[in-house]
Amino acid sequence: MDVSLKSSGAKHKMSEAKPWVRRFGRFGYMTIGIVYGMIGILAALAAFGPRGEMTGTSGVLQSISEIPFGEIALWIIGIGLFGYILWVFILAIKDPNNVGTDVQGLIKRASYFISGVIYANLSYGAIKLASHTGNAGNSESEKNVSIKLLEQPFGIWLVGIVGAIIIGCGVFELYSGVKEKFMSEFKTYEMNGMERNVARITGKIGLISRGTVISMIGFFFIRTAYTNNSEESKGFGGALTELANQPFGKFLLAMVAIGLILYGLHQIILGRYQRMNFGYEKSNFKKR
After folding, report:
1. Among candidates 170, 131, 165, 125, which has minimal Cα distance to 149?
2. Would you tell me the crossing angle of helices 236-244 and 249-273 to the nearest 10 degrees?
3. Which listed site, 63, 84, 156, 273, has its alpha carbon 20 to 30 Å from 266?
4. Closest by alpha carbon to 76, among 30, 110, 44, 40?
5. In this structure, is residue 2 part of a structural domain?
6. Percent of residues, the chain, with pLDDT higher than 70
7. What's the pLDDT at 256?
8. What's the CA angle centered on 82, arms 81 and 88, to 5 degrees?
């Protein structure tokens, strides 16, 4: 390692977020990894046998609540998700990655904020389940959203716009997976060769799989707008069910399930090695 790389590494450490923020944020990413890993495992069991379930994030919390020590696991997930929420709100408001205030930067920062709101709801659901004060949320929340939107003036257009935005997010994840754009989020200089390869493979397959499911959810919203029928709206579990009902559906479901498990592993690795710095550009670091 040369002097310039040591200097860059030192600058990076100096510019990182406060230690407790970093650790809490990293724990949050790992928590999300566990949730998506569980979704993938349940979907894989459904593809290969009768014991699985095609569900989304709220559904998987309900499944966790039914296993031994599930209450403890829910408390860990509920608290852990707050770490992720804290970090994405920092990304949205403080912009430590310098994505900027142009149209592309604002869209990315808005996506961070929306992600934080979504996972705040999931965290709240996990804590309600763990404390026996409620359930993890409505499994038909997407349908409820479409109903409320359809009741508004220009409701059909609103549902269609939401669908287009969701598809855009899914396509972005697909693109990021195919082009391996996600690797820029890792502190690769701290990773050995095997760790970088695992991060690359899990991210590539995981993001392609999750991007596919998200794009399907967006398509269902657009179909809802086209038919003016809220029954067409489906969430994560509904998208997996629709996939399983296609020709060769069990095979397709199995492939996506494996991808979601890998996505969960990718999030865990991201929790360990993600850049959490303030102020310095990524170009300051040599790629390895």
Report:
1. 165
2. 140
3. 63
4. 30
5. no
6. 85
7. 93
8. 95
Burial of 79 from C-beta contacts in 10 A (0-12 / 13-18 / 19+): middle
Query: What pLDDT is recorded for position 162?
Result: 86
Total count of domains within the chain: 1
pLDDT higher than threshold 80 for residue 31? yes
- Say how far apart CA 8 and CA 3 lie, in whole Å: 9
Amino acid at 276: M
Q: Which two tokens stand for residue 4?
A: 């310039």
The residue range of the domain holding 205 is 8-284
Residue 163 near residue 156, CB atoms below 8 Å: no
Phi–psi pair at 186, nearest 5 degrees: -95, 150
* Gap between the Cα atoms of 127 and 269, Å rounded: 25
Q: Mean pLDDT over residues 121-145, rounded?
A: 76
Residue 269 lies in a domain: yes
